[in-house]
Amino acid sequence: MNKREFLLELERYLRSLSTVEKNDILQDYEEHFTFGIEEGKSEEEISAALGSPKQLAREILADYHIEKMETSKSTGNVFRAVWSVIGLGFINLILVLGPFLTVVSLIFAGWILGISFTLSPILVLLNALFNIGTFEWFDLFFSLTLSGLGIFLSMGMYYVSLGFINLLLRYLKYNISIVKGGK
């Protein structure tokens, strides 16, 4: 594969990036070819040394989404980063997606529990309004206790969620370094 074919294929796989970022990356790889030619290598040797443009683009996109996740920890950025790391290899489907879905499910359940406990007094009052004669003070006090517990649980889930995102970021970076052949 010559320089032109390599860069066109790489550009095609990087289409989801902005034009400026894509051009910067392509410029870097054009420099790889320039330096390689100065060292006496052919374009085919250089492209073979760089590897598959498709795999290279996957690694670039994974790094890009991880970097984006570091700056803005929105839900969309988290899912895009996880998905791009999964795209690096089939084994990541098991190593990344399985634990990710498990922990996200547990965190989601914790949030639901905290919110439902917090809103429990409203349910007791609605029950008293629609079922006159069934109100008991014990139910109200018990629901207020649950509400307090729900507030504490929700605050705890907030910190658990932040911790999970930071841990996930470190895990994804580690996974990318393993896929790239680093330590």
What does this structure look like?
It is built from 8 helices and no strands. The chain has 183 residues and is mainly α. It folds into 2 domains: 1-51, no CATH class; 58-179. Helix 5 runs antiparallel to helix 6 and helix 6 packs antiparallel against helix 8 (137-179).
Task: Label this structure with key terms.
mainly alpha, 183 residues, transmembrane, 2 domains
Task: Give a quick summary of the entry.
The chain is mainly α and 183 residues long. The chain contains 8 helices and no strands. It has helices at 3-13, 19-38, 43-50, 53-71, 75-86, 91-118, 120-130, 137-179.
- Count of the domains: 2
Structural class: mainly alpha
Mean pLDDT: 88
Net shape: rod-shaped
What percentage of residues falls in helices of 4 or more residues? over 70%
Total strands: the figure is: 0
Protein name: DUF1700 domain-containing protein
Pfam families: HAAS
Keywords: Membrane, Transmembrane, Transmembrane helix
Question: What's the helix and strand layout?
Answer:
Elements: H1 3-13, H2 19-38, H3 43-50, H4 53-71, H5 75-86, H6 91-118, H7 120-130, H8 137-179
Helix pairs in contact: 1-2, 1-4, 4-5, 4-8, 5-6, 5-8, 6-8, 7-8
Protein name: DUF1700 domain-containing protein
Pfam family, one: HAAS
Transmembrane segments: 78-101, 107-130, 137-160
